[in-house]
């Protein structure tokens, strides 16, 4: 299966996928990353892709007349690589109608909180501020909401008294990277169906 991965930052989730595929072999894992897209330049995620010899593309919102034009450009740039699955790994933009028309139902996102708790761009900070005792990460399908699509898998992480946002986020990311690699491999190898809010992987 062909994966396009979308990033906005350090790209450690992308790196985890690349490492797993390199280690197990694309055939055994069931997928290979064919391209990496981003909403901004100058991020480690794009450097990781370039180091892996992968094609990259960048669609910056400010380069387009409006959000819909950006969304269309992102969808077209993604479609050019003919993905079977799109993985949003730390991609910090909400995709729109055009993107979902083409890739809805086969775009997976990873979020650093236990959805439906603490959706949005500051899930780690919000869980900490709320005083949650456990938090974690969620891998889910993207729908037309924000972090609201059908949940595929979740991982739990304890919150420690001494945690600040970055310490907690790093601990979450250790679980998140393993969860994402496992989920993407299963979806690619075994296929899946989405029945309402239920994801079935045979
Ligand atoms: C991940 O925790 C992701 O869930 C969140 O931002 C982080 C991205 O990390 N949206 P990286 O870019 O994969 O290192």
Automatic annotation (TrEMBL):
Pathway: Purine metabolism; IMP biosynthesis via de novo pathway; N(2)-formyl-N(1)-(5-phospho-D-ribosyl)glycinamide from N(1)-(5-phospho-D-ribosyl)glycinamide (10-formyl THF route): step 1/1. Keywords: Purine biosynthesis, Transferase. The active site is at 111 (proton donor). It catalyses: N(1)-(5-phospho-beta-D-ribosyl)glycinamide + (6R)-10-formyltetrahydrofolate = N(2)-formyl-N(1)-(5-phospho-beta-D-ribosyl)glycinamide + (6S)-5,6,7,8-tetrahydrofolate + H(+). It holds the Pfam family Formyl_trans_N. The gene is purN. The record marks 147 as: Raises pKa of active site His. It comes from Streptomyces aurantiacus JA 4570. This is Phosphoribosylglycinamide formyltransferase. CDD domains: FMT_core_GART.
């Amino acid at each position: 299966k062909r994966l396009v991965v979308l990033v906005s930052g350090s790209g450690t989730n992308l790196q985890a996928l690349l490492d797993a595929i390199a280690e197990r072999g694309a055939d055994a894992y069931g997928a290979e990353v064919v391209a990496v897209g981003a909403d901004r330049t100058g991020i480690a995620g794009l450097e990781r892709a370039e180091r892996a010899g992968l094609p990259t593309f960048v669609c910056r919102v400010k380069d387009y007349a409006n959000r819909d034009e950006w969304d269309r450009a992102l969808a077209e740039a993604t479609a050019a690589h003919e993905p079977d699955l799109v993985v949003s790994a730390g991609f910090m933009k909400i995709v729109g109608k055009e993107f979902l028309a083409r890739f809805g139902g086969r775009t997976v996102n990873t979020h650093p909180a236990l959805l439906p708790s603490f959706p949005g761009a500051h899930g780690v900070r919000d869980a900490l501020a709320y005083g949650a005792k456990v938090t974690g990460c969620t891998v889910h399908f993207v729908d037309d909401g924000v972090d609201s699509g059908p949940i595929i898998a979740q991982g739990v992480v304890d919150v420690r008294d001494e945690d600040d946002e970055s310490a907690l986020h790093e601990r979450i990311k250790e679980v998140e990277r393993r969860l994402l690699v496992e989920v993407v491999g299963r979806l690619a190898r075994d296929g899946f169906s989405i029945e309402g809010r239920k994801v079935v992987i045979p």
